[in-house]
Amino acid sequence: MNVLNGYFSKFVNVLLKIFLIPLCFVVVINSIVDIITTGNSFQYSILVLAIYILSAVFFYFLYKKGISHKKLLILILLYAVILRVIWIILVPSYPVSDFLGMYERSLLVLNGDTSMFKGTAYYARFPHMTLTVLYFTLLRFLFGEPLIPIKIFNLVFSLISVYMFYLIVKNLFKSEKKALMASFIAAIFPAFISYTSVNCSENIAMPFFLLSIYFFIQVANKSKPLYYLIFSGICLSIGNLFRMVAIIMIIAYVIYLLIYFQKNLINKGKGIALILISFAIPLLLVSSTLKALHITEYNLWKGSESKWTSILKGSNMNYGGGWNEEDANIPSKYNHEYNEVEKVCKQIVFDRLTKTPLPKVIDFYIEKYNTEWKSGDFAGTYWSKVSLEEDSFAYKLSTDFYTVANFLYFLLLLAICIGLFNKKQYLKNYAVNLIYLTLLGYIALYLIIETQTRYPFISSWIFILLPFTMNFKRKY
């Protein structure tokens, strides 16, 4: 370990302690407040927790009995399928909000209408949703009414993610037992289960993000040659087509290669080039092809509305950084003139941050951070139940499942915080710092842009990997 990466690792570690240790208390307080305000009966919460505990005991028993790891993994994957199928059946969610918009527009696209991708139409202003609309269109073409097929494919993507946790943890921590534990946690992770019935793009992007991490860690641990970074970049780019927040991981990759990669400067440069080029090519190809086919008017990464409109909403202290009509009307007020809108947004954001008393600004961002990260389901149960009748079984099950999600989330956070004191991990297992950097990046991103509690879902995989930094007394 050289001096630079040692000091940098300690700096990252301190930042995460500042963010995550208080979050543990916030999660507990949020859970208590939720129980009091909703009058949760715990009827289904207790049932689900009992099922989780019994299944954990069952799999541990099989492990101790010496069942092969391959068979145990297959059983965990089968268990993951069963949980998700049960959820899809018991919680018949219907898309709402942006999810409904993408779902309905896919029918228009199938009929040849692509006007929503042009001019100042919604998906021209926010083209990052384009691929999801086209994906729904493809499923409509193949299956007619695509709601059930979408949920089935969500299940498949989720199952792939469960398997990826096994592979990543096995490579990251060199432990078969930890890998099996990670796959089990992923199988029962409430956010993964609840979002199976939601038509969101994160379901598609998640396994590709994990594949990218897997390939990168293999290179970082020197188990694969440098050119494997090409696969990492391609997978990340594919995931980014559906959920365009991969820039955070790109930045984390570049920082890791510069600081931790045990190669000379030339090879560091090659690694960075491989990641950037392999990430950029699929994005450029897809974007230019869609424009050439006259499906879209703008590049997928830059629509007719500046990204500063999201930052503008995210800085509005009167609305907690969330969507509000005041900021949403700025583009139309300035006739959707891109440069003018961006200029106005920057000025308003600057004024808000400089003309507001500093204590109020700090309080705002603390509250914004807590809002984004305090829920263990990452709003999955909300989006699952919002289309349902409040007195229905499915609605009550979703409400109770939220309590389970927070309980499990707290345990994972607690393990992560304990792991932050394990110097063996963050000072010697360099690849762990890649995950730490990624988490810090997403924390920063969601402090800046518009507040939505579902946004951090795409980064929720981090909370399954990092608990294994905790120092286990026994060696495996």
From TrEMBL:
GO terms for biological process: lipopolysaccharide biosynthetic process. InterPro entries: LipidA_mod_glycosyltrf_83, RgtA/B/C-like. The keyword Metal-binding does not apply. It is a multi-pass membrane protein. Keywords: Cell membrane, Glycosyltransferase, Membrane, Transferase, Transmembrane, Transmembrane helix. Residues 138-278 form the Glycosyltransferase RgtA/B/C/D-like domain. It is found in: Cell membrane. One of its GO terms (molecular function) is pentosyltransferase activity. The chain crosses the membrane at residues 12-36, 42-63, 72-94, 122-143, 155-173, 179-197, 204-220, 226-259, 271-290, 401-421, 430-449, 455-472. It comes from the Bacteria. GO terms for cellular component: plasma membrane. The keyword Transmembrane applies. Its main location: membrane. PANTHER family: MANNOSYLTRANSFERASE YKCB-RELATED, MEMBRANE PROTEIN. This is Phospholipid carrier-dependent glycosyltransferase. The lineage of its organism: Bacteria, Bacillati, Bacillota, Clostridia, Eubacteriales.
